[in-house]
């Protein structure tokens, strides 16, 4: 099997993108875990009961921790993708403007793109 050498710039870009995702999701998880008033208002407006905030924060935190660890990055990306799918579904159910659907989709692309940039197995899987 041919091994392709990755440039340092590409590897750094992939880690920077992954770091941005980790920071964004950590912020959301901590807002849910801390029962931040802004997070509670937003969740209630979307139809989620206040009591679910802690559990949503725990799920989000677990997903992002798994995504941040190199050995579990794939399972973390799968969990984050599920989370983002739920965000898209919530926006669709509430008939939000199409613009609101773009953010979770773009985040999902960045989640997987950051891994794809440095993972030859994922590149091979997606190129077939």
UniProtKB/TrEMBL annotation:
Topology in membrane: Multi-pass membrane protein
Transmembrane segments: 12-33, 53-69, 76-93, 99-117
Main subcellular location of this protein, as a coarse class: membrane
Entry keywords, A to Z: Membrane, Transmembrane, Transmembrane helix
Pfam families associated with the record: DoxX_2
Location of the protein in the cell: Membrane
Name of the protein: DoxX family protein
